[in-house]
Amino acid sequence: MKVKCTVSYDGSQFYGYQVQPNKRTVQSEIEEALTKLHKGEKIKIFASGRTDASVHAVGQVFHFETNLRIPDDRWPFALNSLLPEDIVIKSAAYVEHEFHARFDVVKKEYRYIINQEKIQDVFKRKYCFHYPYEIDLQSIEKACDLLLGTHDFTSFCAAKTEVEDKVRTLYSIEVIKEENDIIFRFIGNGFLYNMVRILVGTLLEIGQGIKSFEDIPAIFKGLDRRLSGKTVPGHGLYLWKVYYDN
Amino acid sequence: MKVKCTVSYDGSQFYGYQVQPNKRTVQSEIEEALTKLHKGEKIKIFASGRTDASVHAVGQVFHFETNLRIPDDRWPFALNSLLPEDIVIKSAAYVEHEFHARFDVVKKEYRYIINQEKIQDVFKRKYCFHYPYEIDLQSIEKACDLLLGTHDFTSFCAAKTEVEDKVRTLYSIEVIKEENDIIFRFIGNGFLYNMVRILVGTLLEIGQGIKSFEDIPAIFKGLDRRLSGKTVPGHGLYLWKVYYDN
């Protein structure tokens, strides 16, 4: 039987999601817990996609195959008791055999949080990017309008990205001010390597007047990573939700 | 000259506030940073009081003597650049020579946060006490009314407390529900060892019906730690603010 799980993790102490030899990763911790639960039988998980070192997840999704007969709502408790405290399974459900956590993704939501307090909030240091500079939200919102829709995002992904087709669609970008935080909320059909972090870096440079929102069309057209802004740090980024049909 | 500093710290990685041989403590980290800044001259700090292992501070206050002439508003930056990332100096001010961070305290505010989500929120695991049990807030509020005012708090402090006078005054207790969190906010003229954690433990037992709010007078009267509730964990506790005259 196939189980679909929603998992949240604090990315601070991980070398990202994907298994790497001799590194602590989210995937390896979950596979180890599942293997224990299956009395040594090796279980492999398939996630909606990777996340990088120090990037968090509120609603990452993965699936795996199992012969264990555990009720849906007991899976989180069974797994959480075997997982380290920085990974928490939020829910689980049996799904049809055809379901695939990566290939069936319809859209994804990422959030990026910056904190604008002058002096760093000690409790947010691993969960927001501390950015105490004045930014003009109106220019940022104008830039967001130009980023929306279907584009070749070559200029907004890490130069070493191996994927060939770099056309993606951004359905919505929201910029929400909450006290001293600014939350950037992106929903799209897919995201390239470092894409959200480069989009935010570019928006912040526009907010500071280093770049203009009017530069966006030329950045797209240039198909060159060097035209966009800096990549902001991973610890402000959250894989918030993965959407599937049904 | 005498400097008064307000400091916040994430208690997770400390063996409490006070210096202990071979342990990482808040006091020793701050004194080390100050000593560096004073080119090796040993600087001692005096705080409003101690906090225990894993207890956080939003607004702990301490003072120290210095011969350095740094403007008030530059002290936080000078010190923060030398401090580890889990201690942040929020503000500093020159004060009169008579000021003492401990002896001049007029009142203190502590907060204790519990999280009631069924499944732990991974981002709150070090910053709230996970308590997913149903509790009756009305009984808790009735108990709070009986705790207010001036009492001998012997039954509400750790048995090993050495202080002789255990009479303290609680000016206010607020119980605030915020989404899935419940925040207990205590303001008093002073707090005994483990007092807030035992008060919250007792209130939670009242909320669950293990004890009744009507037991409070007898618990006070008994002058016996065994009459009150369990001590809740340190990681839900925050020294929120220290009040002085002026």
Automatic annotation (TrEMBL), chains A, B:
Residues 7-104, 143-245 form the Pseudouridine synthase I TruA alpha/beta domain. InterPro entries: PsdUridine_synth_cat_dom_sf, PsdUridine_synth_TruA, PsdUridine_synth_TruA_a/b_dom, PsdUridine_synth_TruA_C, TruA/RsuA/RluB/E/F_N. One of its GO terms (molecular function) is tRNA pseudouridine(38-40) synthase activity. Keywords: Isomerase, tRNA processing. Belongs to the tRNA pseudouridine synthase TruA family. One of its GO terms (biological process) is tRNA pseudouridine synthesis. It catalyses: uridine(38/39/40) in tRNA = pseudouridine(38/39/40) in tRNA. It comes from Metabacillus litoralis. It comes from the Bacteria. Homodimer. Transmembrane segments: none annotated. The gene is truA. This is tRNA pseudouridine synthase A.
